[in-house]
Design goal:
The structure is a homodimer of 450-residue chains.
Chain A lengths: L2 H7 L5 E5 L9 H4 L10 H13 L4 E4 L19 H9 L6 E7 L5 H14 L4 E6 L4 H4 L10 H20 L6 E4 L4 E3 L9 E2 L4 E2 L14 E4 L4 H10 L2 E4 L4 H17 L8 E10 L3 H13 L2 H13 L14 H4 L10 H14 L3 H5 L2 E2 L2 E6 L1 H13 L5 E6 L4 H16 L12 H4 L14
Protein name (chains A, B): FMN-dependent monooxygenase
Keywords (chains A, B): Flavoprotein, FMN, Monooxygenase, Oxidoreductase
Family (chains A, B): Belongs to the NtaA/SnaA/DszA monooxygenase family.
């Protein structure tokens, strides 16, 4: 397909986010020792990745998060710096790239979150986004006075109300509320600074926010849940959806569904950006890519790969035959709380079913729950182009195997191919994340009617 | 007194914090328009003040805070950027100076706060401090689902338990928990990463923290309450006390009391630093200083000064005779909730009583509730030296009238005088805030006994 054909198929260009998951998406990354084992606690590590990403004109960098120590710290780096403060540091080491921080709607108060993200939006000059998560899992709950996580339905009901409150707080100062006339002494027009007087099932919040309206109007909202609750929440409130989709068909179906849901809320579906994750292991040749993958796998053996399948389906690895298909009959019987996230599980099952994969084959096609591509820059560019042009994605959340080499290869080798095909910008055309993503400035719900 | 006499009287040197209160401590500062009326939302404004302060080798910059919009936004700049994210930005624009962020123990969860400050401590290379406040006032409460603020006693009981939890979380990774051996795959020693399993009246927190131990061991703790609850809390947990003291005698008495209280908790009293606030209006001559003060006062007339007295005692300004003493008999009858903070009220009453001041005289001796000095650099240096040498203070929280000129004058004119007298450093000798303040590295409560 020629470049002109490509660029005629869709208006605009794809969005690209760089997901900084510790040392990289591959659990062996820290052992390759491209950086020191303490690097994940060092702001310079993140600033370096962000600057490389910005060199490639990427839309944003992204930090996942959860308020609990996860994993076995004897074997893997544990803990993470809190994303809003870390991304403040990163924003100030960059000029254009957006910063997407994850924070929990279950274990925070809306006033605090609305304020912190509005502050980050001010400090970054309009580059802040909040990835809203509700945090399944008991470990987080037990750090906040609960024996276990609230029910899924309750977490999402709270999240819905949380976002309603946050949006009202972000709108509580109208765009032109500040007069700022030192001579006359008029600071703000009090008719344009609103109490929100919210009283709901979960929250009562008077407002107004104690931060005036931020450069983007409000921070960009990202949502990542693929359950029914997650899809309802995301299609209603989010500007971008991070999702795990492992086959083109599933990606297209999810894309169609979410756009339709957005329209159902009275929204313009164009302004809900669908961004599946893609894990990458890139080499100049296929052989090089597979050698890189093998080197990473060598640290934990093939067992590490099989473990990720076992963990998602909730059946111990030692009870699985790697060369057999998934034990479909047993999977249905596993209780929900023994499995990983619903979206990750389904994406994995769909891939195995559609391509009739053995467990071993499946284990080499996913990484941290997302579709994995081991291959050349051309192959990565091809799959990104294909999904984008086939309306399975508006953009992608890129999860390189290992930092910093993984982001360097992506920016230096994949991005130019996308640019040549007319699918990605050559330079930033806007200054805010909202502009990078092609989203309009939001209308203020309290704005006075003329 | 000669320099040698001065420096012999006390070991060590005084500590100096720079309190960035919006456009300055004087409510007329924004109207003088040294900077644009939106400057308080601009990170560059704060970075500039921090860099000037660092040029003077000050210990820290400080940001007060509360989670509610305060004051009349039609007349005064309203709202503030959230301190932990703002001070992350400031820390990365500086190399040595500490950053003290205020956050509420009443309207936050300990896991979130412990984590955010540990992250800031990592990101700043050991320069983070948390100023713990409990937030009197109903406006904050109404942003968090409450009709009004919890009772004083309940706020402080919660704060006490909050700090106990936070200290455990900060200690939950021992200093040498991380092995970080990529070759063998040993990341951390799991015996040195501790659940805290805290169950109390207000909080149940399992832990461990999901941030390894930070460069200062834990962030420096600052506390500012002068009530009985505040003094008990501060003397038990704090590394530094910010206080309002308006007369030397009261300052000395508070100093003695707090040192004794610290000793009563089994602490070394030297490691509890007492830092009263001092508001400054500085000119090269007394006449210049008073002209500067008059220019600021002109924006709101004398009425603005009288209002600050009226507000603290809870009696409308129009019912007060500026040339009479305080109406002592009425003050006693004013209900507690109509007054300002107990510490600020008492400091003001003590000053009026000790020096037998009229309301007008009193109104010109305090600013934002703190002792005000309008005078020359020599006079400011004299009063700082005097209080320091007379054991009324280990250091000071400086609150200039207006930024940036107020911090420039202090750093360029007052600091050199203190340096010449041997009372203040000529250059930083440590790299962490704890080192600047002369505090030891904290022992980890979970450290394995040999």
């Amino acid at each position: 397909m020629s470049t002109s054909q490509h660029s005629n198929l869709r208006d605009g260009q794809m969005s690209l986010g760089m997901n900084i998951l510790g040392f990289g998406a591959h659990s062996g990354a820290w052992r390759q020792a491209e950086v020191h084992a303490n690097a994940y606690l060092d702001v310079d590590y993140y600033r370096n990745i962000a600057r490389i990403s910005e060199r490639g004109c990427l839309d944003a960098i992204f930090l996942a998060d959860g308020p609990a120590l996860a994993g076995d710290v004897s074997k893997h780096p544990g803990g993470r710096l809190e994303p809003t403060v870390l991304l403040t540091a990163v924003a100030l080491a960059t000029q254009r790239i957006g910063v997407i921080a994850t924070a929990s709607s279950t274990y925070n108060d809306p006033f605090n979150i609305a304020r912190r993200f509005a502050s980050l939006d001010h400090i970054s000059g309009g580059r802040a986004a909040w990835n809203v998560v509700t945090n399944a899992g008991d470990a987080a709950a037990q750090n906040f006075g609960l024996a276990g996580a609230p029910l899924h339905v309750d977490r999402y009901a709270r999240a819905d109300e949380f976002l309603d409150v946050a949006l009202k707080l972000w709108d509580s100062w109208e765009d032109d509320a500040i007069i700022g006339d030192a001579r006359s002494g008029h600071f703000a027009d009090p008719r344009k600074v609103h109490s929100i007087d919210f009283v709901g099932q979960h929250f009562s919040v008077k407002g107004p926010l104690n931060v005036p309206r931020s450069p983007q109007g409000r921070p960009v909202l990202v949502q990542a849940g693929s359950s029914e609750g997650g899809k309802a929440l995301g299609s209603r409130y989010a500007d971008a959806i991070f999702t795990t989709q492992t086959t083109l068909e599933d990606g297209q179906q999810f894309y169609r569904e979410m756009k339709a849901r957005a329209a159902g809320w009275g929204r313009n579906p164009e302004y809900l950006k669908i961004m599946p994750g893609l894990s990458t292991v890139i080499g100049s040749t296929e052989a090089e890519a597979h050698a890189r993958f093998d080197a990473l796998n060598a640290w934990h053996g093939e067992h590490g790969l099989l473990e990720q399948v076992a963990g998602r389906i909730g059946i111990p690895a030692k009870e699985l035959d790697p060369d057999a298909p998934l034990p479909w009959e047993r999977i249905g019987a596993v209780a929900e709380f023994e499995r990983g996230s619903q979206g990750f599980l389904e994406a994995q099952l769909n891939l195995a079913r559609r391509e009739n994969l053995s467990i071993r084959q499946l284990s080499r096609r996913i990484l941290v729950g997302h579709r994995l591509l081991v291959g050349t820059p051309e192959q990565v560019a091809d799959t990104l182009s294909h999904w984008y042009l086939a309306h399975a994605a508006d953009g992608f959340n890129i999860m390189p195997d290992m930092f910093p080499s993984g982001v360097e290869i992506f920016v230096d080798e994949v991005v130019p191919l996308l640019q040549r095909r007319g699918l990605f910008r050559h330079e930033y055309t806007g200054s805010t994340l909202r502009e990078h993503l092609g989203l309009p400035f939001p209308t203020n719900q309290y704005a006075l009617r003329a």
